[in-house]
Amino acid sequence: MIPNFKDHAANERTFLAWLRTAIAIVGVGLTASKLTGAQMPGWSDVAMIGSGGLVVVLAFLRMHLLRRRIDAEAELDGLSRNWPDVVLVALLIAIVVLTGIFIAHVA
Q: What is the pTM of this model?
């Protein structure tokens, strides 16, 4: 049996949820712009795909940091910087930017 299996499984499910969210927003945004037939500037396609990629990279980084924290033997002290939470804030900012680009893209 894998030590801390439930924690690792929850970590991977969270990563996959972030991945699905980024793929859905990018996919719906690009599809909606193509279906409307409106001319979109090239930067909006690139910005949408780039910000979706940023969400995926940040989600992977957070998953990796939490995996190391789950496997750590030592007890964490309250004074150390909580890097997974810092990455989570960056991830939330990236998803807000991605959603903003989506709205600008289909509007």
A: 0.79
